[in-house]
Protein 1
Amino acid sequence: MSALDLPKPAWWTDEHSMLAESTRSFLHKEFVPHLDRWSEAGIMDREAWTKAADAGLLSASIPEEYGGAGGDYSHEAVIAHEIGLAGADSWGWAIHGPIVAPYILHYGTEEQKKNWLPKMATGELVAALAMTEPGAGSDVQGIRTKAERSGNGWVLNGSKTFITNGQHANMVVVAAKTDPSAGAKGTSLFVVETDNAPGFRRGRKLKKLGLDWADTSELFFDDMKLPAEALLGPEPNQGFYQMMRSLPQERLTIGGAAVAMMERALTLTIAYVKERKAFGKPVMDFQNTQFELADMKTEATMAKAFYDTCVGLHIEGRCDTATASMVKYKLSDLQNTIVDRCLQLFGGYGFMDEYPISRMYRDARIQRIYGGTNEIMKLLIARTL
Ligand SMILES: Cc1cc2nc3c(=O)[nH]c(=O)nc-3n(C[C@H](O)[C@H](O)[C@H](O)COP(=O)(O)OP(=O)(O)OC[C@H]3O[C@@H](n4cnc5c(N)ncnc54)[C@H](O)[C@@H]3O)c2cc1C
């Protein structure tokens, strides 16, 4: 049973219920039994991507003509929620599905869509998005990776860091300068297929605080030759515009993961405090526990209502940058606070790895940083004041 009993939003249909149900049973069969092993290994099994593709999880909003299920962002939101409820937060699914696929769908030429989207839907291609560099994170304009024309194609040079799916990805959308004199307006996106590609090198799978089985990595491009068709869209220098248009969906998805984790944390905590006894009675019977949980349930319910509303706005094309930034910033902040308060109610057991709340505490922290830090979100919101 879930700790949050808010009625379903207006955009929810029977189809969403069926998708939620099938995603849940898939994750509990193919992911949950392996989470500890993947955490030990620091990476998930590559076949799990293919199984997820077979279950339709990699193509929810890809149109049917390109091999997808033909849904919209609301279907991605349902999958994101189930991934969070199953505790599979380390999975770089969001980068592949609701983040990279729309880049191809919205900005790719017809040929590019026909080439890449069906392979993304079957899991033949696993996608990564490479914007961040050692010297440029928040300041995307400061990237130094560059692509220079060479004959009909391009030559790519540079390095990227913190790239989600960095070890498994064989299709990387890379942000590069194509006209360094034009600042942000001189940026382009390239879709780089990496299988047996000379000039491409994967660096370390980075050790980190949380997301134990996310293969976050460095990537290197040394005089890598790219065909003309690797440029996303028909013309260069559109990258900054393409990224800015796409970031609201990425930020909404981070908010969705935050809602799911809050819901899971509350569900696990309520079950624990009803079982655990102190001073001869269940921890739930202390008024402090009840007030803490009542307060957290209220805050998480408000967060879910805001998020559900914004998903509805987004599928109508009406969720703007500032609103998506509010979702990302406020919900990820709240996620961190709620997981911390829930962990407190577990006492010392909350600090032990075998209790999922401990892993959630570590996994939650990155949500305030990636997809644009929460400080950058506040800057974007402040521009509307
Ligand atoms: C696990 C993980 C996965 C990631 N996945 C990806 C990925 O798949 N693809 C990708 O491209 N990147 C990815 N990133 C990178 C992530 O998006 C960046 O780390 C993030 O954007 C911040 O950039 P930075 O680390 O360079 O921090 P910096 O930009 O150096 O920021 C440092 C601090 O300064 C603050 N700051 C910066 N500018 C301002 C300002 N103007 N006003 C106020 N404060 C400011 C920041 O908020 C932050 O607190 C990932 C990172 C991690 C850790």
Protein 2
Amino acid sequence: MSPVAHFFTGWVFANCFDLEQRDRALISLACVAPDVDGLGIIPELLTRNSSHPLLWFSLYHHSLHNLMFALIIAAIAFALAAQEWKTGLLALLSFHLHLFEDVLGSRGPDGYQWPISYLAPFSSSLQLAWRGQWSLNAWPNILITIVLLMVTLWLAWQRGFSPLEMISARADAAFVMTLRRRFPRTRKEIEPS
Ligand SMILES: [Zn+2]
């Protein structure tokens, strides 16, 4: 699935638990973390027509989709979190939600399945793949992304914070206010007192 879908998966997952702002961010980011290896697409595209193209994306994409990197991310979350154990474990789960989503629907445009080498780089004995895997741009991914966005908007409206809180508290507050003005909870709230 796309990094956007993974991010909102992590956000909705984090919001199933009672957490502080920083811990919510850590768990949300843990769900996108495996795709950090996809950043190689930038140097690869930039050097595509040069005499020494860097094939970082082709070589390394999906190389961080494994248990070892999951444990590293969980350890980082543990170190930075307010609730160390809870957030560390939830970050580990969040990372695995990403792997699960990729097994479901990340077939490449060429039909390649990108099996997940779960025990890499130590062993290639365990490859996770599913025959029914749909492609990256197939409708289930679009539907899942829309549903996650709707849930994120509803959570923002209901709880008073959105993923924007990771960037700017002011932007987040303005966003929630706009949502609540547009969709008032009760008639009373829009009437002047
Ligand atoms: Zn991925």
